[in-house]
C-alpha cells in the first residue's frame, strides 16, 4: 500500500500526513478495504490459498462501481469521484 514511502522534515510532517490522509480518504474505499483484508488474512494462509482469495477479490473489484468510475475517469481524462460510489 505504500504507507511508508517517503521521509519529510519534521516541520513538514503535519502537511505531508494531511495530504496523504486526504489521498486515502478520496480513494476507492471498497478496494482499499479488500486490500487490507487480504493483507491481514495472508499471514494465516498458504501462498495457494492467498492467490485463490486474491482472484476472488479481483473478480468482485472488477465488477464494482469503483472500477467503473476508475475506467470512466481514465477515458474522460478527469479525476475520479469515488465518493459517489
Automatic annotation (TrEMBL):
SUPFAM superfamilies: ClpP/crotonase
Domain of life where this protein originates: Bacteria
InterPro entries, per database record: ClpP/crotonase-like_dom_sf (IPR029045), Enoyl-CoA_hydra/iso (IPR001753)
GO molecular function: isomerase activity
Enzyme Commission numbers on file: 5.3.3.18
Keywords: Isomerase
Pfam family, one: ECH_1
The protein, known as: 1,2-epoxyphenylacetyl-CoA isomerase
Organism listed in the record: Mycolicibacterium vanbaalenii (Mycobacterium vanbaalenii)
Organism ancestry: Bacteria, Bacillati, Actinomycetota, Actinomycetes, Mycobacteriales
Amino acid at each position: 500500500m505504500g504507507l511508508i514511502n517517503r521521509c519529510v522534515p519534521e516541520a513538514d510532517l503535519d502537511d505531508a500526513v494531511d495530504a496523504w490522509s486526504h489521498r486515502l480518504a478520496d480513494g476507492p474505499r471498497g478496494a482499499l478495504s479488500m486490500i487490507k483484508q487480504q493483507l491481514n488474512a495472508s499471514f494465516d494462509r498458504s501462498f495457494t490459498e492467498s492467490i485463490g482469495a486474491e482472484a476472488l477479490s479481483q473478480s468482485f473489484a472488477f465488477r464494482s462501481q469503483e472500477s467503473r468510475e476508475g475506467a470512466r475517469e481514465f477515458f474522460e481524462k478527469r479525476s475520479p469521484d469515488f465518493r459517489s460510489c
